[in-house]
Amino acid sequence: MDKASLMQFLKRILGNGSAEKSAASLGQLRDILKAQNADADMIRLVEATLANISEAKHEVIQTTFSEATLRTALERAQRRKQREAEMADRGRC
Amino acid sequence: MSEYFGSTYAAADGIILSYTGSDVSLSVPQTLADMPIVRIGDGAFMESAKLRRVFLPDGIREIGSQAFRSCRELREVSISGSDTSFGERAFTACPKLGALSFSDFPVSASIYATLKTASQRVNGTQYLARTFPDDKRLRAALSSTGIPPATLVPDGLRRLFVHWDPDEPSNASEPESANDLFAFGDADHASAADELAALVRGGASIGSDRETERKNDVFERTEKRPLPVKTAVFSFDDAKTRRESGGYRLSVRISIGCHYWLSAVPIRFHEKTYYICRRHDLAAEPDFLYTRREFAVFSGDTSLSRPLGDALVTNTNLVREIYAKYRLMSIL
After folding, report:
1. Which of B2, B3, B18, B167 is the best residue to mutate to test the A interface, defined by the most A CB atoms within 10 Å of its own CB?
2. Domain boundaries, chain B
């Protein structure tokens, strides 16, 4: 599976159904990639998407959806989660 | 390595990853763009709101976890393959699911003979009094629908088993009052034995047999009462069985969502009170007719501290006499 196919799968999976349904399908996609010994970067992208489904789903509905925009959205979501975790550690959340 | 993107399916390596169609009746293709389909991916058909019937072709070896979860209208799934396995919760939260059909289920000649002996014909359908205790596929099918095969008690009144569906808590129903003549399954009534026990315990406040009959008849006509228990009935179509190279290939059907309720009629016999507990079967399927074939007699001096088995009258002649009197009373 190449990057273009992966993005098509992500768009299809994230664009339809609930977060729960997307999570199940993304888990299946990750398993397929692992079975194919796919590029580690692609597996990481699926796992990052799996960890930030709501942000990824939001990104998919944008007309500008691409690998770059998805990565940016996932990084932003990751940073936000880190910030929230730090705030919680300090007792301010 | 192959991939497929159609208007309704997305598939890779023989696995359907996602279905986004709105079919009511769906026959899953054997191949997609020359790629043989061998697995329904995890969650692939989840939340397909309109799906009512699904036909899975020969060649599908596995149905992924949660594959058909929350298909609220799904009524029937037909499986052609003889070695399909089921993922966890594949059919959970499908409240209208009535039947899983296996059209090509291989068994040995000896198992076939056992099934024939153990089966029972009711309303034109051959029911299995015992299931296939060693068969992984049927066990998996039951697990995926939320009915644990461990609760299957094969004989007599307990031939069918019940399970409260934790995904459908709203379906649970308490009897309407202490004098309610019907026992329904709920979290505290996880088995037929428990339901009977509860019924017998409440026996002192059970109404007249005339009232029981009236309520039963209302139920039979209108079917408006909630039916909270899930029951599975194993049946096989003897007529469709074919013999091949020393073994048999059966058409096996697990009917899910059949329901039963229990009623009890107190009766005085030889200065002692007995309760005639009858079980009424009703299925969600239109071709499954109402049946009232099974009854049990319990002695009236049931003590709560004693196990249910002690209350069951096992003297066959006595049971026949009590039932004969009850039948006479019903006629009168």
Report:
1. B18
2. 98-331
